[in-house]
Amino acid sequence: MPDIGPAPLVVYTDGACQGNPGPGGWAWAIAPEGSVHGSGGEARTTNQRMEVQAVLEALRAHRHHPVGSITVVSDSTYVVNCFRDRWWVRWQQNGWKNSKKEPVANTDLWKPLIELVQQLQPGFRWVKGHSGDRMNDLVDRLAVEAAKGPFGPGPSTSSTSSTSGDPDQASLF
Fold this sequence. Notes:
The protein is an alpha/beta fold. The protein is 33% helix and 24% strand. The protein has helices spanning 47-61, 77-84, 87-93, 107-120, 134-146; strands at 9-17, 22-30, 36-45, 70-74, 123-126, 159-162. Strand 2 (22-30) and strand 3 (36-45) form a beta hairpin.
């Protein structure tokens, strides 16, 4: 029987902010169950930063997954369009200036994210937020909860959880 390798990984991501700027949270979860997930937050941030941070943390957590086997699902057009339309290539060529010749926001997050994207070559898919998609709703809840704190001393706190499939454990849904 031929070795078919590991199954493709689908990871949902989301960011949330209470005020913009304000306390914020990010989260990721692996489909279809969401039992493996991570989240964190910052005391003062923006929604867009948290959207980018969510993808960065998801890819960091799965950096050893085979190249081309990860799909990131996000309700952030900011994130999805950056990779679909290759905005990042123009940003790099223009010295990290956007089309208005202004500095690209969140460069400190985009640079390491782009490096991981180049290494892992994930696919990106947009999902409409707050539309009843179970996994999108889950990462939204996790990000909103993370935005409540507590926040660590660094720029972002994180935690990764995994459930064992024990039927006595509380469901994420």
